[in-house]
Specification:
Four copies of one chain form a homotetramer. Chain A has a single domain, classed as Chorismate synthase AroC (Chorismate synthase, AroC fold, 4-Layer Sandwich), CATH 3.60.150. In chain A, the strands form six sheets. A five-stranded antiparallel sheet of chain A has the order 1-2-3-7-4, covered by helices on one side. A five-stranded antiparallel sheet of chain A has the order 9-8-10-16-11. Chain A has a two-stranded antiparallel ribbon with strand order 5-6. Chain A is α+β, with helices and mostly antiparallel strands. Chain A is 26% helix and 22% strand. Strand 11 of chain A pairs antiparallel with strand 11 of chain B, so a sheet runs across the interface.
Chain lengths: 361, 361, 361, 361
């Protein structure tokens, strides 16, 4: 099922950008877990648009209604279904897109794939809107992971030329993660946030958009999470992270940087802590060896492309007329989706890690 | 099943570095497909070590025996099982590794995960040796894809500081791919190969190792291959590519480069060719929009870390004594696995793309 | 995912007997298929209780709301989500059941399995109520199958000692199926229906319940549907049919009767029709050879146990007190669920057959 | 993957009746489990033909070679691959079958399904021969289950008109199971065995064949094994049992008998034993309530059709000539496969139950 993920903990996402409801079914959660729905809603609110100058003025109003799977506030063995009513859609904004696919979007590929039956309004099932149920599912998984000592957080490492510093891959703590993700614009250095916001504002004013990189971390993973080969940490995490629209690259630990290192530089030596725990002095491996957690922080960087919907004129084609044409995308679009993508990355990590945790247990 | 991959075309890989046999079961192939086993063997031989100065002197002698699934040389609906006898293993080389995990390897994580029952000889099930059956499965899938007009090829884009030029993401042809992969050391520019070989030779002489980047391409994909969300092209391809040992980063099209582009730079405009085909003038999207093939070449770059097994002394721990110690890895190891990984990348792509092709069909 | 079924066409059922909503996500349907929601509702209404004297007086009012997956009334590639609000639940009826498990129900096993967190109201996720979304999903699949010439129908073969005649396994037509399933109490012979209704009425009056057998048929299946071994017709169909509560036995074609036949009696000879089609003269194999459709009608019989909820006193235990006790089940219960199970059987068959059809295609 | 089964413990079966090798890959077994290969071979030998007058004189010589997945005799986390070389095949016996499908076999359906590319020799992938790797996998799973207190055994309940008595569904013990399965012809009453053997001998002499019923039991299952809906005990067990060739019906507990019972007769009352354990006084539910184990013996009956290969003349068609014809099946065939199917049923149960056990754990 292409819109479902997971083996033991499974999610199944449904909905289109403009369907009546979007939502998610979450099956296979451990039972007896109390789920704080208000906290999950707050997690989801982090991806909401319309909060400020650097995102779209649409008000998505993503109020989640959990309609099954909880009993007395706790998981009871039955699948959770969470729904979000789509209340603020403007289908007319998209009428021309069936004919004129937007560059950089799935309009063209979905139209061909589905022989013209694709729900083209707002990108249909390919819309970034579908990351709302992903975030809710992630929030649920995260609460369960945290109860097991596993914490996840992310920050904006870069937007266009604006850069933040990196997490300390060896020493990052859950407290430091909590501090960063509590920020309205999550960067480690506040000066980086200011620079990035200015870059976004400039892009908006120019009718353009910008991309960026999100760095995310999980701490507290015990040694041994991840299955061999195709279910290793990198395989599972990349397969869910690439499902977030606009992601074009993913790297773990030193990532593409390993290509220019010697083995003697890249290998992380093991040592024994006073507690008896075995750690590595450096963390270029990013917390995964052979696809299995090493006990060091799990470090991932995810590259997001600039929002393809821009108001500048772009060359495209008319599918009906079979001729070249020019498109001016109207509607309300983010000049940069990176800030809103931060909780999406955390959520995707939480879902994949809880699934692997439950498989391993 | 962590060692199996695919939904319609499924592979299941078995074996450890030093088990009697390693192999693969391939199920769900279209029927009536003639498989040229000699050609598949030649494909597999591309990953064989011991060919020259820049790889390990071990002779793996990977002779594949297909024991089921073909009838009169054609697929018949039953699963193919292909086996490789392990004939040239030296288990004594690895005896100390149960106690002293090699930095950068899965020795430590697998030992903990499997409570001490892991087959530690040569990395067990986590060994790069298991890419031999992956390559064979890929060779089979590739033959079927080629019959449908889809061709795959890869070259070494970089090793340490040695760089090759990139494929032409818009205009690359199957003939150009064939020319590159026919080379004993596959780079586009021969001067790049010479430089890379020298880098590898230097690393070997220094008891060290180097990493690099492989760029791979699929041409001839029709529009529409790839399923939504978690089964999109990027999700499926990354989940199988990250299963190749030593991969630390994957990017599609412009990849991490998108983070510093404006939308107006990154979007690839559509136009109509004289044939009526819709193409993009540039190919920064790398052949995938919304996880679905656009008809443009599919372009992937995969980063490989330096071989972790190096003869230089490295700090590690003795698990039995519970103390810090120093390890000198002996045995026969590649100073750079990138050249041998080229067919592995092609094979992984072929398996994932045939699965998606059959799902779509 | 235990509450999902299928490989290419997948359904995921959510909800508990007394959750706010019950429903189903259907993914992987062929695109461009018009779905007649009114017809699907009418199909679902066939399982509704409260229609007459022989079923429970509860009014379930299963009004389906399709909230995603259709665009202009047709499947568009995105998953369909269909919801039914639970409006007529009386949770207080069930309060004692957490302590005193009903004989013949999942109360006891679910309570232990889920460590006391099971939603015990009305059987929770194990309730027969969850066959409502199954029926809706089946109705959708059936419309698609019928467009391909495949028709499904069932009748009540027996209730307790009341027997109907069997379908003609060789010559049954879609018209005859349509005629039977249009009946308010679907038997071939009306006299059988009268006898069965009297049996049910007697059971009700005695505070008891009765079981029965449903015979179901699919006609129009082309030769070749069904995958080898674990995905054969019998494997797939039985795995979904046994998910209907109260099913205790399933047989295909001659079923258990084969045990007392000679091979020369049981084998169905092949012959060529004037049209060139190859058929069998008899149909003891029930339309499946080697798990693959033979082109003959697919014939299944499914045995249902008597409703376990009866008002007669029954011995059980108090889990809290740890002592034997006596239970009198109150609430509104069917004295026989067989009549309402008829569309459930048809729905389950439709889901499994469409999945296999799409896998084969 | 149609020839694979399981979610956590997965098996993948490969081979055709006349391929060089048949075998199985078993993935996901718990680690550190010692596997007694000699005991597994003895289990497999129970299904071997050629032992006596009532089975085929073929000598299959199923010697299993385990080529991966064990280290120091224990499971090590890597998949087990077990192979059986096919040494005693007579392909010429089957040459005519490509043209003239045998009544009751998959010859016809497979030929059409695979467009003429099916390996028709001996039934190809649909051959009963493939139950040899199933038995080996089952023997491995059984050893692991027994270490957890779960024991499985089966006997021949009937062959044609010859009947054995049933197991005591309430009180059956592992010792009694062991005693029955140790018999060369496993019936509870020796007189039943004699009668059945005579029936088989008569069928053989008449060039005919007979079917029968196997009754199987698992004891020692804790309460709570089995997942809801489509992964309930009945669903999982039936989906693997129906993969054994010739199975036409499966029932649990009272099975089809429930159809003629009142609820007050069929419900099994709960009571508390002196040990505090909760049991049922009777066991008509057959050990499963809501698809979840109740702690009572799990009781299954499986109906096998008469071997379709008989030497009597049978009407069939010539696919090439497109005309009716008469077939006389030569070759060596069992007049009754029921005795050899006994370990197959036990093996199938062991595989499904270990998978569910590991999912639950």
């Amino acid at each position: 099922m292409s819109s479902s993920f997971g083996e033991k903990v499974k999610i199944s996402i449904f909905g289109q950008s403009h369907s009546e409801v979007i939502g998610v079914v979450i099956d296979g959660l451990p039972v007896g877990e109390e789920i704080d729905l208000a906290a999950a809603q707050r997690f989801l609110d982090r991806r909401a648009p319309g909060k400020n100058a650097y995102s779209t003025p649409r008000k998505e109003g993503d109020q989640v209604r959990v309609v099954s799977g909880l009993f007395d506030g706790k998981t009871c063995g039955a699948p959770i279904c969470a729904m979000i009513e789509n209340t603020n859609t403007r289908s007319k904004d998209y009428a021309q897109l069936k004919d004129m696919p937007r560059p950089g979007h799935a309009d063209f590929t979905a139209e061909i794939k589905y022989h013209g039956f694709q729900d083209y309004r707002g990108g249909g099932h390919f819309s970034g809107r579908l990351t709302a149920p992903l975030c809710f599912a992630g929030a649920v998984c995260l609460q369960i992971l945290e109860r097991r000592g596993i914490h996840i957080g992310a920050h904006i490492l870069s937007i266009h030329e604006g850069k933040d510093k990196s997490f300390d891959a060896v020493g990052i703590t859950k407290e430091e993660l909590a501090k960063v993700i509590a920020k309205e614009f999550p960067t480690i250095e506040d000066s980086a946030a200011e620079k990035m916001k200015a870059i976004i504002q400039n892009a908006r004013e120019g009718g353009d958009s910008v991309g960026g990189v999100i760095e995310s971390v999980a701490v507290g993973l015990p040694v041994g999470i991840g299955e061999p080969m195709f279910d290793g940490l990198e395989s599972k995490l990349s397969s869910i992270l690439f499902a977030i629209p606009a992601v074009k690259g993913i790297e773990f630990g030193e990532g593409f940087g390993v290509a220019t290192l010697f083995g003697s530089q890249n290998n992380d030596s093991f040592y024994i802590e006073e507690t008896g725990a075995i750690k590595t002095k450096t963390n270029r491996h990013g917390g995964s060896l052979g696809g299995i957690s090493s006990g060091m922080p799990l470090v991932i960087r995810t590259a997001f492309k600039p929002t393809p919907s821009i108001s500048k004129n772009q060359a495209t084609v008319s599918l009906q007329k079979g001729e070249n044409t020019v498109l001016s995308v109207t509607g309300r679009h983010d000049p940069c989706i990176v800030p809103r993508a931060v909780p999406c990355v955390e959520a995707a990590m939480a879902i994949a890690l809880l699934d692997l945790y439950e498989l391993f247990k």
